[in-house]
Amino acid sequence: MARVHSVLAASVLLVATAINSGAALPRKLASSVERLKAVGAEGQGNAAAQAAWNEVAKAKANQIPELLVAMDGANDYALNWMRAAIETAVQRETTAGAKLSLKSLEVLLRDTQHHPRARRLAFELIQKLDASRAQALLPEFLQDPGSELRREAVAQLMARAAGQTTAAKASAVTTYRQALGFSREADQIEDIAKRLQDLGDKVDLAKTFGWVAKWQLIGPFDNAGEVGFAKVYPPEERLDLKAELAGKSGPVKWFPYETRSEYGLVDFNQAISSLKGAAGYATAEFWSDSARTAQVRLGCKNGWKVWVNGALIFGRDEYHRSAEIDQYRLPVSLKAGKNILLVKCTQNEQTQDWAKEWEFQLRVTDEQGTPIVSTR
Amino acid sequence: MKISLLLTAALTVAGSLGAADWTQFRGPNGDGLSSETGVPVRLEPSSITWSVSLPGRGLSSPLILGDKVFVTVGSGARQDRLHVLCFRVTDGALLWERQFWATGRTMTHEKIGAATPTPASDGKAIYAIFSSNDCVALDLDGRLLWFRGLGRDYPNASNSLGMSSSLVVVDGVVVAMVENDSESFTAGLDARTGVNRWKLDRPKKANWTSPVVFKSPGQPNRVLLQSAQGVTAVDPTTGKIAWDITEGASTVPSLVVNQGKLVIPANGITVVEPVPGEAKPKPVWHSAQLRPGTASPVVVGGRLLTLNDGGILTCADVQDGKRLWQLRLKGSFSATPVAAGGHLYCVSEDGRVQVVDPSKAEGVVVSELPLEQTVIGTPSIAAGSIFVRSDSRLVRLGGTALR
Predict the structure, then answer these.
(1) What is the pLDDT of residue B269?
(2) Fold of the domain built from segment(s) A209-365
(3) For chain B, what are the domain ranges?
């Protein structure tokens, strides 16, 4: 049995090596691929890419796996150029009766070193070739680094749980709990939680999402006429939690605040007062056991800015359009040890019923959406 | 010499638009009117020539160029997969499909989605923009000409309720209104490469209206940008402002041009007339009684028609705004009515196509056909037919064969 495994592993390795070598792409095609990968912001490289695209779209069926591999390292613009060329080539080749190698596509799909979008496209090509095979492969992707594959694998598990609901309630709960553990998409997590609740199993949503719950708040500062969004108030220059600062209508001080909301809402209306034309700040220590990349994920329908360790990450001055979990995903670098999060949240002067909220929710996750919780 | 003239003529025809093609939001002239004849008036179940399923949601209008229908679609739990599909007019067969990953924000109100704006065509290519502000140009056979991620290039250019401004293409420039509360602009993109020909800062205010091309004999083309601030006319080749009306306008229904005058949803309806050489258009009339909802106004045979969200169709004399009649249609409405052969085609959100004859002393519903599908997008008219795109299907009503 062990020998069978090693032979299998060796053949997978051989195919994988062939795919990774890049040798199968003729020079002209490889050069065209490079021109597609050279596109950038504001249409940079578009003119050169146009002719190159026509070359890549002429690729033969046996070159498709290599083209998928060539998506590694491509930026988001180039991925779209590549995708369109590959799909065009596949459509032409398969219409003409050429066969795509299912085996090569599967090898590429399983190799998580390749770009998640190349792997996703490989999966979709497999779906077109052999839908049942694609379904059979899905459970392998419950922990996939690619969000599209992972989501679909979780959806398959949820469908299995739904099928168990009537006959074997306990099994359904177990399967939904498994799905919850694998899911990284907020809407899917909420859906699973609702189904579990219907089965009498309550999910701790706050813990599942991993909100930053303990904050220090200060405010209100002035945001009449929405000028406070751009105005630099003292917390942006120097964080001194003992300082008394000049607020919108008198001195203000930092005070501790812990959200009890299962959606992690830091509610300035409740913590300070229901005000219009006001700005507030929230700060929290976030301890990481290592230096690492992460995402700060924010939901907010007010104006906001986020700083990590004193560096402004992003800000947005849109008011009362809409908010959702993980609305904004901000790539950040965390230091080992203590990191300081600072959020500015500004309320405008709209008076409609739907313009009351002055709040945000924030969590720190990895790139896939797995919550990272402060180690202290 | 004769041969070369013939060749020139042939090439001109090959790269130009057919007279009855439907090339943008509200048709070739952006006024909701089609010159098609033979479009069915008495709709019945047998009027459905074909109906095909779409791989996702959307409310952009189909474009029809010759024997091809082009439709955009958004799919995925976060509406982050963007599709452009091409079907054959005669039988609805899928000719090609291209998919793209959104690079900008895809969050929208649940009623809309990624495929809300309508593409535009100059007869050579399809230019499609999505709510994520991803913009793509494909030739009519599906070859990718360029891709732009305007939401990625300008990271605060988005609207958490979704973007809906359709494209226009004029004088070799694709005009994209990316107007929102934060990083608000309108851009003129080179139709050949997608690069910015110009980028104009615009009012920081969410805006769902669509640009309109204003053509006037002997005058340079203008693109009219409607916003909460008013209407701005720009030179499509440079983005330079030609004139401005600053008395405010709606941010949902879009203005329509009729006989050289602008019929603007602004505090009801405001009509103005641009005059060559004058700094501002001259006022013609204003009526607070005519209040379009989400649907844009349309003028048919000298009659101005506005439709509110609750289905009240109001008819007025376009010369002076005098109200002539009102008619209650069935259902709620988001789609703009379109017209051919003097008849108005109104599609309610529950998919009921209602054909109205607006020419009489009172409005008359001539026929109706319930499609029993959610329809938010404006229908299109070409090839002797009406093309309705629902939340899940593309339906052709009428027409038998391509002429």
Answers:
(1) 98
(2) Jelly Rolls (2.60.120)
(3) 22-34+44-397
